[in-house]
Amino acid sequence: MLIESLQNEKIKRLTRLLTKNQERRKAGVFIVEGQQENERALEFGNLPEEYYICENIFKGKLPTTKIHYVSEKLYEKIAYRGTTEGIIGIYKLESRTLEDFKPKKDSAIIILESVEKPGNLGAILRSCEAFGINALIVTDPKTDFYNPNVIRSSVGCLFGMNIFQASNDETLEFLKINEYQIFTTFMSEDARHIQEKNLKSKSAVLFGTEHSGLSDFWKQKGENVLVPMAGTIDSLNLSNAAAITCYEILRQKLEK
């Protein structure tokens, strides 16, 4: 059966799940759009519940899980990215806590406090995956890991990563118990350049919100570091600063 109407009950439910974080949490699912992203979700063991596919657009191998076929005109209306690749998957959400993460002796973690912009979170996840960061923690989150824009901007990288949400207190306790070096990032006269610090052992680097930076909770909890800059501006976009930091961690680990 080909679904063509926005008034179809299945489409109404899908639209709610696509647009409302609380609906996804209530249903215990997350939504994945795009062929590459769905392939990565499956590759890393996520359990699909159903798919919405436009045969005129989709060019991949059809999944074996329950499929609802939709018209091209309808797909253009419901898809977050218009006609992109013709597949939307609904997957079961499995909750994970910091207690599930068992860090290695050289584990590197990026911590984002109250990150607000889904695009920034997705870009940082992509950098973390590319440079071998072992986990990403978002404290006191203001955006959903499974926001469609997070998945899009991370190109599905979050599916193969250790990602967690926790409070500041829970995160600090985890870092202390597991004996992490803590590095903060905010403007201060005593901040050292990040490449001057040894990041080869257990290290956690913290970044604050796009608007106001790290809160006072973290400012006395570790050593403060900054990315060196030669220009006239005094700050970088959050995702750029995190990407440079991730690369520096990998660079040090690759040194002989």
Automatic annotation (TrEMBL):
Pfam families: MRM3-like_sub_bind, SpoU_methylase
Keywords carried by this UniProt record: Methyltransferase, Transferase
MRM3-like substrate binding domain boundaries: 8-89
GO molecular function, one term: methyltransferase activity
InterPro entries per record: Alpha/beta_knot_MTases (IPR029028), MRM3-like_sub_bind (IPR053888), Ribosomal_eL30-like_sf (IPR029064), rRNA_Methyltransferase (IPR051259), SpoU_MeTrfase (IPR001537), tRNA_m1G_MTases_N (IPR029026)
Gene Ontology biological process terms from the UniProt entry: methylation
Gene3D superfamilies attached to this UniProt entry: 3.30.1330.30, 3.40.1280.10
Domain tRNA/rRNA methyltransferase SpoU type: from-to ranges: 109-247
Keyword Transferase among record annotations: yes
Domain of life: Bacteria
Family as reported in the entry's similarity comment: Belongs to the class IV-like SAM-binding methyltransferase superfamily. RNA methyltransferase TrmH family.
The protein's name: RNA methyltransferase
Species whose genome carries this gene: Epilithonimonas ginsengisoli
